[in-house]
Structures
1.
Amino acid sequence: EPEVTQTPSHQVTQMGQEVILRCVPISNHLYFYWYRQILGQKVEFLVSFYNNEISEKSEIFDDQFSVERPDGSNFTLKIRSTKLEDSAMYFCASREGSNSYEQYFGPGTRLTVT
Amino acid sequence: AQSVTQPDIHITVSEGASLELRCNYSYGATPYLFWYVQSPGQGLQLLLKYFSGDTLVQGIKGFEAEFKRSQSSFNLRKPSVHWSDAAEYFCAARGYQKVTFGTGTKLQVIP
C-alpha cells in the first residue's frame, strides 16, 4: 500500500541552525501538508501546499518557515534559524485530489533543538 | 472558528471493559471526521473516518464511532478493551484544507 515517508526520523540540531525536513508524499497526490506536535500537546496545522504554492498557513508558520517541492517527489519544510521551541514531532501529510477526503500522514520527524 | 473538543484528558479502563471516548466538533457545516491513535513516540494511525451516509462507522482494531449531528459529536467506542489499546487517541475534523485535531485522550488499560 502506498504511504507517505519522512526523513530523517530524528534530527538533532543546535539553536540558530537551519534544518530541512523531508517528505515523500504518495505519488499521485496533489495536496501536501505539514503539521507539528510539541511533546505532550495536540497536533497543530502548519501549512498546506497545492499547485506549487501555499494555499493556507497557520499563525505558527512565520517567516522562519518555508516549504518547497523541489522536484516531482519531495516536499520539504525548512526552518531557517531554529529555536528551542521548535522542538517537536513534525508530520507530513498528502491528499489525492479535491474530491478525496482523507489526508495520509507520514510517521513523523522528531526535531530536537539544543 | 473550527474546533474539536475532547473533554477527557485521561481515561483508565480495565481490560475487557467497554470504552467510549468523547469528541465534539464545532464547524460551519458537517466536516469530515476522523479518529487517530498514537502510541508513544509513534506516528498517527487512522482508526476510522466519517464523510457521509451511515452514521455508525466501523474501523480497525474493533473500534466504531457514531456521528450525531444534533449533538455535534463523534464518539469512539470499543466493546472490550485490550491491553494493547493503551495509547493516545485524537479526534480530528477536516474542513476545506486543514485538519483540526482535538487535544487527545490518553487511555490507560489496567489488568
Note: The CA atoms of residues 65 and 103 of chain A lie 22 Å apart.
2.
Amino acid sequence: TQLLEQSPQFLSIQEGENLTVYCNSSSVFSSLQWYRQEPGEGPVLLVTVVTGGEVKKLKRLTFQFGDARKDSSLHITAAQPGDTGLYLCAGASLTSGSRLTFGEGTQLTVNP
Amino acid sequence: DADVTQTPRNRITKTGKRIMLECSQTKGHDRMYWYRQDPGLGLRLIYYSFDVKDINKGEISDGYSVSRQAQAKFSLSLESAIPNQTALYFCATGHRNEQFFGPGTRLTVL
C-alpha cells in the first residue's frame, strides 16, 4: 500500500506570512496533484506535476515535485485569509492506473 | 451549472435503512469514483468505474455497492446503513490522472 504523509497536519498563521506544506512518500509516483478543499465543498484541483524536479507556480503558490518523484511541496508566499482551507496532495503510481492515493491533508488557517 | 453534481447534499437516516447516493457529471469523462472522507483519515476510495461495464472495488468497499447506469451516472448504495458509515461522501470523475470532485453528501446514520 502506498502512503502519502503530509506535514504539518494543522497550520495557523497571520496574514502576510509565508508557509510550506510537505507531502512525502517512500513510493515513486508518475504524477502528483495538489487540491484545496473548503468547508462544505469538494476538493478542487490546483495543479498536477509529472516530471521529477518540476516547479509550477500559480500566483502566490509554488509547487515542486521531488527529483525522485517521491515527494512534493507547496509554498505559499504572503498568505491571505482566502488561502484558508484543507490542502490535499494525491499521487498516481505506475501500477495504480488512474487511482489516486491521498494524503490526510493540511488544514491551513490564515488569520487577518 | 456544476460539472459534477451529487444528491442529496445532506441525509440523516437510521441504522438498517437502505440509502442511495447519486452522482451525475457533464464532463464527458469515462472514469468515475466514490470516496468517503473522515476526519484524520483523508479520502478513501470505495468503488471506481472506468466505463459502464467496468466496476472495481476500492480499499473500503465492504457494506457498499454501486451502479453505473450510464456514462454520466454513478450511484452508491448502502444496503443496511450502520453508524460508522457516517461520513462525507464524494463522487469524482477522472481524466488521465486528474480527478474532479462533486460537492459531497453529508450522511449521518443514527
Note: The mean pLDDT of chain A is 93.
